[in-house]
Every structure is written in C-alpha cells, then in structure tokens.
Amino acid sequence: MAYLIVEGGKKLSGTLLNQSAKNSALAILCASVMVRGKVVLSDVPQIEEVNRIIELLVSIGVRVTKIKPGTLQVDSSRPLTLQKMDRHAAEVTRAGLMLLGALAHREKKYKLYRSGGCKLGNRTVRPHLYALGKLGVKVETFPGFYQVENNSILKGAEIIMYESGDTATANAIMGAVLAKGKTVIKMASANYTVQDLCHFLVKAGAKISGLGTTTLTIEGVSKLHSVKDYPIMPDPIVAMTLISAGIVTKSHLTIKNCPLEFLELEMYKLEIMGQKLKIKNQHLSKSGAFTLVDIEIFPSKLVALPDKIECRPFPGLNIDNLPLFIPIVATAKGRTMIHDWVYEDRAIYSLELKKLGAKIDLVDTHRVWVEGPVNFLPNEVVAPPALRPAVNVLIAMLAAKGRSILRNTYTIDRGYENLYETLCAAGAQIEVINE
C-alpha cells in the first residue's frame, strides 16, 4: 500500500487542467455493452475505479483495447460469459450495478455480485429494482449477489424514480432505450453523469428527449450502432477539489475546463463568503454538449455563511461537492453547519480533520458544525474509506505547515488521475512512498 509524505504550508500557483468525469466514464463504459459492435471512448480518466470496471467487463467477454492513454475501444460483439464474472471487480465498485440496465436486453438470466464502493452507510438498491421492474426486469436479492431474470421483450412504461439518484436513473434509461414502446421517467436525476450518458446513447442511436430535466421521454429502438468517438466530459467534482485546495492554501490558481452548469451554485456561495474568483474563457466541451469555463481563484479572507450548507439533486449544490466545503469553511471566520442528508455515515468521516486541527462537532450522522478560522496542523492520518472525505484530509495537509503522512491512498486513487503530480506541478510538495 502506498502512502504520502506531505510537506504542507506551500502556496500553489499556475494553471491546473481538470480531469474527465469518473462517474460519466463508469456509466458510459457499462452502456457500451448495449452496443453489439465497437465503441471508442476518449478522455477516459485513468483511475482505479475505471480499471475495476474494465476488469469486470473483460471478465464477461467484452474486449477492451487501449488505443492510447485515455482512449479505449470497447467491443461487445461477442456472446457474453456472465458465469466468468470477476467477483472482486464487481464487489469493490458500486458502478457495477449499472450492468442491470445495460444487460437488460442481452441476457435472460444471470447472477451479479453485490457491489461495494465508498463506505457511506446503508445505500439502498431499491430505486434500481423498482425502476427496472416496471420494464420487466426481475431481480431477487441474496447474500452476496443478485439473481436477475429479464423478460424476453421489455416494454416501455411510466417510471417514477423512488429516489432520483444518478446510477438508478442511468439504469432506468439503459433499460428503456431498447424496450418496446415509450418510456417516461419522472423524478429522474438530471446530474452531469446522466446527461453525459444520454448524449452518448443518442449518438449511438437512442431516442431520448428532455435531457437536462427531471422528466425524460424515451422511444425504444431495436438496436444501437457503433460509436466512432465519444469524449467523456470534464469532472465538476475534481474541479471543485482543486478549487478547494487552492482556497484552503490561500493560493492564486486557475482551473481549466470546469463544467459551469454543475458548479454555479458552489461558486456563488463561495463569492458570498468573500472568495474572490473570476470565471472566464467560456467554450464548449469536446462533445459539444456542455459549457466549460476556466475558474481563477485568488487568496481571500472568508466569512461563514449565515445559513447551513446542504446538497441536493441537480440543479443544486452537488452531493459530492458538499464534503469539499468542509476544509473551506474551516478557514472561514464563524460557524457553519454542513448538512449531508444523503449519506448516513459520510459526515462522520469529517471528524478525521480534527486530527489536523479542525474544530468540528458532530451533531448527528448527517450534520456537523465547523468553527473557523483555524490553522491546520500536520499529523499522520489514515484516509477514511470514502473518496471525498479522504481527499479532504489531503487538502488540509497541504495547508498544514510541516510534515504530514497520509495512509490508505487507494481510496483517493479510485477517483483522481495524477492528482499528486498535478498538485506538485502547482507548487505542492507530496512524495508517494510505495511499501
């Protein structure tokens, strides 16, 4: 297991390039199995979570070829071998659940191992099962696996999402695209992952209207065709991570290729707190579907917001961006409540920042009070088993003057591509030690 030695207290500077979106890549890789031919995906983030999904797909007979770094060819033309599924790969990433929708029209009966991912408390799969059940997918839950049985012909239906989560909505969309007739999905997630997935599927021949809204109408098609190139969109959560690191270290930084639509509220709240920033260089993503900007941040004195900071499904403050406000508000004058209502345990992991000098009080498993401003202090910490809380520890270490050690960095490597190198290029001092 690798660990990091961080010499904190360094100012960051320069221009950092945002990476491609982890969650978009995972959903689109799963959706590629719906195309009985070749799909080329570019700007695929080279991260551990993507590696696990590739291992999972390869184990069931999908050919995945690296054309060059970040560009993959996915060939699902051969018959699949679900009985050879890589159990470890399936169990360590929650994204494997999206095979329920992707395989709905390919396999009549199979077993899918239950998935893992970040340890965030109870994470229900009921929204997935209820939505797909409306189309004719039957799933029985057993200890360690799901037994799936698909009707020979899935039929379109009206679906009300029990919970408007990204992966549950993605499953409903994938199931509906090849179902006979019309499907209307209400209370759908309109988040970036779902939009990127829909744009990919439309390019493959799907008929989807209502993109970017919470009501999607899908006219089923008989098949999808090959896609010569689909570029994965940039990641709003990684962009926010780099912004958080810049703010906490009181640095002057520019983050390139930030998907504006999914960061506007975050930037507005920061401005209300006193953060000086500039949004510039507006342009379209490579797919032409998203508006990108560069965000320049400047050293600023922050004041706590008078209201709590909470997340919500899009449009709203992104659920995965909420934890990244915790190290920020720790440097702001005043007291801030962070309300993480979605996950039962994620707020608890913010207490790890107390080891680095943060003043955080746990109200309950969903809420914390954060008092600032504090000067972060160096320490040795084991990264918590959840992606964003783990990277928060690294952000605090970057600001803490002195030497810190961060262990269990696989948690961070699951979702960030060359993060340490990127930060070091901007002036951070991080050494990766492989044990």
Report on this structure.
The chain is built from 14 helices and 23 strands. It is an alpha+beta fold. The protein folds into 2 domains: 2-19 and 234-434, UDP-n-acetylglucosamine1-carboxyvinyl-transferase, Chain (Alpha-beta prism); 22-231, Enolpyruvate transferase domain (UDP-n-acetylglucosamine1-carboxyvinyl-transferase, Chain, Alpha-beta prism). It has a 4-stranded mixed beta sheet, covered by helices on one side. A 4-stranded mixed beta sheet has the order 2-14-16-15. A 4-stranded mixed beta sheet has the order 4-5-3-13, with helices on one face. Helix 1 (22-31) packs parallel to helix 2 (48-59), helix 6 (166-177) packs parallel to helix 7 (192-203) and helix 8 (236-248) runs parallel beside helix 12. The termini are close together. The relative contact order is 0.16. The model has no long low-confidence stretch (mean pLDDT 95).
Summarize this entry quickly.
The chain is of the alpha+beta class. The chain has helices spanning 22-31, 48-59, 87-92, 99-102, 126-135, 166-177, 192-203, 236-248, 264-273, 326-329, 346-349, 387-399, 410-413, 419-425; strands at 2-8, 13-17, 38-42, 63-68, 71-75, 109-113, 137-142, 145-150, 158-160, 182-186, 207-209, 215-219, 227-231, 252-259, 276-284, 291-298, 309-310, 334-339, 359-364, 367-372, 380-382, 402-407, 429-434.
